[in-house]
């Protein structure tokens, strides 16, 4: 037998911080500790069931897996026992001394300045798991042994939840884990079996493992075990027999999110591919949704046997906010992440689940209020869809929401259907503008003509928008058109033309001189019908990279070829009329450069040489 080696270890600093937070932030919902411990026990039994498929000896002649809960009133202890996979000594050190999840540090940092109620919510979202035992306990003991190991390879872990824990080798006859909570005096309510029962009914009824509570028969003076949950996988039940609350509790169990889901879809599918799926859309984005290596994906079961968490093979990235389970009858039980990757069954399931998810969102979109909550949380994620999933472009496009010039609010509430239904009779294209911010889009000089003609324009100012618009080519047969790009069909619609005879000799001289001054800085210079209030504007050529796209590329550290714009001037503008009259070439030169810089400034939001721009303005002001 191993020497009884007792060691004292210090908790990882994040754990200390977490424990401190939990114990001191007046946790309002203390009872969730039991849900967490039962969930861990059930996970451990799932793991045993999974590994037991290929190694039946791991069951150690005890094939009835279960979770048992008992109390000892005189000692003030609550004991949660499972005969699942258990832990080795090293597992214990790794799992019950650190927080392995990535991003914990940033999560804890985000908690620092929050109010208590927000903290509670965030902690719940993060899923504090095992450490929540210290919300109600003074001291916690864990006795565990990994299935298949010898009896003397058990481990005892004990801690007061302060800075450190002790770890000792022990003999443990049964595989699995037994957790003993020495409850704080004021938490004695958790010693009452009716209380325990009600918590289990509330949170853990759907757990597929039997949960038994130890009861005492007063008459016979004996203890006996009574199963307290139904232990049937929720998703295998008929939809009509599942209550809304049951669906919600199952979601919370699955995700550690304390908020209710905003919508869900449960389907039993028969045929070539037989499967059950239960998909949820959360009400709130998880804190790590923008974390590159955050874990998302569905929980995978094969014929009711738990296989793995966070299987990313069934949903694309742009639907990463969807949570849920998929239970397939066709996949092999020994499936691994690698096998899943390029498996035709997976591919089929994936396309079916994408459709289901998008249909579920479409259903949600019938409820404007709820859909707006969803869009505000996940719109940016969904906007990755057009680039990632061209097959479902139409479904996705219908789910997108925008703001527009006429909408008059930064909030994105307009669907493309709505835009199209408000289009002018002769309008063939969907007009949009991309910019750095809502305000700069809304005030862009490009909008002047559209405003005058009462044609609405979508205002796009999320970073991803420019990228998305590369993939969103048309909607219901209508092409998308950026209004900051050359568009020869525009004058047909607006019936605005620059009639040649109307261009005075002054203006045509002006254009010639301007081209001479600006030379290669621009593609061409011409008069415009687009402007009403602004003297000049720059347009991108139809086939050239747009300004926003160029910005995205250079922000990503790529070299972008210098953009050459079409420079348009508004012959009606008093400033242009004034400059037309300047004969002095040097002065004209300064004015033209100033005009171009103005237009570039409006288009790009910055200038290569702002000092020169300011100096020229000042000089011209003084000369006035
Ligand atoms: P999570 O369950 O989210 O991983 P927890 O803090 O609840 O986080 O648990 C930490 C880890 O401790 C688990 O992932 C698991 O490896 C281990 N663990 C906890 N309880 C048990 C148990 N009853 N049996 C086996 N392993 C357990
Ligand atoms: Mg857990």
UniProtKB/TrEMBL annotation:
Location relative to the cell: Cytoplasm
InterPro entries per record: HATPase_C_sf (IPR036890), HATPase_dom (IPR003594), Heat_shock_protein_90_CS (IPR019805), HSP90_C (IPR037196), Hsp90_fam (IPR001404), Hsp90_N (IPR020575), Ribosomal_Su5_D2-typ_SF (IPR020568)
Keywords: ATP-binding, Chaperone, Cytoplasm, Nucleotide-binding, Stress response
Residue positions binding ATP: 36, 40, 82, 87, 95, 101-103, 177, 337
Any GO molecular function: ATP-dependent protein folding chaperone
Domain Histidine kinase/HSP90-like ATPase: 29-187
Ranges where the record places region C: 552-624
Annotated region (A), positions in chain: 1-337
Gene3D superfamilies per record: 3.30.230.80, 3.40.50.11260, Heat shock protein 90, C-terminal domain, Histidine kinase-like ATPase, C-terminal domain
CDD domains xrefs: HATPase_Hsp90-like
Family assignment from sequence similarity: Belongs to the heat shock protein 90 family.
PANTHER family to which the protein is assigned, alphabetical: HEAT SHOCK PROTEIN 90 FAMILY MEMBER
Function: Molecular chaperone. Has ATPase activity.
Subunit architecture: Homodimer.
Protein name: Chaperone protein HtpG
Source organism per UniProt: Buchnera aphidicola
């Amino acid at each position: 037998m191993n020497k009884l080696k007792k060691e004292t270890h210090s908790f990882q600093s994040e754990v200390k911080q977490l424990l401190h937070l939990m114990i001191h932030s007046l946790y309002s919902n203390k009872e969730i500790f039991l849900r967490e411990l039962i969930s861990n026990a059930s996970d451990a039994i799932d793991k045993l069931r999974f590994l037991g498929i290929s190694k039946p000896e791991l069951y150690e002649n005890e094939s009835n897996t279960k979770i048992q809960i008992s109390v000892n009133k005189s000692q003030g202890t609550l004991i949660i026992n499972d005969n699942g996979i258990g832990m080795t000594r090293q597992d214990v050190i790794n799992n019950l001394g650190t927080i392995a999840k990535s991003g914990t540090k940033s999560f804890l940092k985000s908690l620092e300045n929050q109010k208590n109620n927000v903290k509670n919510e965030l902690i719940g979202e993060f899923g504090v798991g095992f450490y929540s035992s210290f919300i109600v306990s003074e001291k916690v003991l864990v006795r565990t042994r990994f299935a298949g190991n010898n009896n003397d390879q058990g481990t005892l872990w004990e801690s007061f939840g302060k800075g450190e824990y002790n770890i000792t080798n022990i003999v443990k006859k049964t595989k699995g884990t037994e957790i003993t909570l020495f409850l704080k005096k004021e938490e004695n309510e958790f010693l009452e079996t009716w209380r325990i029962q009600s918590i289990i009914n509330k949170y853990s009824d759907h757990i597929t493992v039997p949960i038994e509570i130890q009861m005492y028969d007063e008459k016979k003076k004996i203890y006996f075990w009574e199963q307290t949950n139904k232990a049937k996988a929720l998703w295998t039940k008929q939809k009509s027999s599942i209550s809304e609350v049951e669906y919600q509790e199952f979601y919370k169990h699955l995700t550690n999110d304390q908020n209710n889901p905003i919508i869900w879809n449960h389907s039993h599918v028969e045929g070539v591919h037989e499967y059950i799926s239960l998909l949820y859309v959360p009400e709130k984005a998880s804190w790590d949704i923008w974390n590159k290596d955050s874990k998302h994906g569905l929980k995978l079961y094969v014929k009711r046997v738990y296989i793995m968490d966070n299987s990313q093979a069934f949903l694309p990235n742009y639907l990463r906010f969807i949570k849920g389970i998929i239970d397939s009858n066709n996949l092999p039980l020994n499936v691994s992440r690698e096998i899943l990757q390029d498996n035709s069954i997976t591919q089929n399931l994936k396309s079916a689940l994408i459709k289901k998810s998008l249909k579920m969102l479409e259903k949600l979109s019938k409820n404007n209020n709820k859909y707006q909550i969803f869009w505000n949380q996940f719109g940016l994620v969904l906007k990755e869809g057009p680039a990632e999933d061209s097959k479902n472009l139409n479904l996705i496009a219908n789910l997108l929401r925008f703001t527009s010039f006429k909408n008059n609010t930064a909030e994105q509430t307009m669907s493309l259907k709505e835009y199209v239904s408000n289009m002018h009779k002769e309008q063939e294209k969907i007009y949009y503008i991309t910019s750095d911010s809502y305000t700069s889009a809304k005030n862009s000089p490009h909008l002047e003509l559209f405003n005058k003609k009462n044609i609405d324009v979508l205002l796009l100012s999320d970073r991803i928008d420019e990228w998305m618009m590369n993939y969103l080519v048309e909607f219901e047969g209508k092409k998308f058109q950026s209004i900051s790009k050359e568009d020869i069909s525009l004058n047909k619609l607006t019936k605005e033309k620059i009639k040649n005879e109307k261009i005075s000799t002054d203006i045509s001289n002006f254009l010639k001189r301007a081209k001479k001054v600006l030379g290669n800085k621009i593609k061409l210079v011409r008069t415009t019908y687009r402007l009403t209030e602004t003297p000049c504007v720059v347009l991108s050529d139809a086939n050239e990279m747009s300004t926003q796209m160029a910005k995205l590329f250079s922000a990503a550290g790529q070299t972008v070829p210098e953009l050459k714009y079409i420079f348009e001037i508004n012959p009606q503008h008093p400033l242009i009329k004034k400059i037309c009259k300047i004969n002095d070439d040097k002065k004209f030169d300064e004015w033209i450069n100033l005009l171009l810089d103005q237009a570039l400034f409006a288009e790009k939001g910055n200038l290569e040489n702002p000092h020169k721009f300011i100096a020229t303005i000042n000089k011209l002001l003084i000369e006035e």
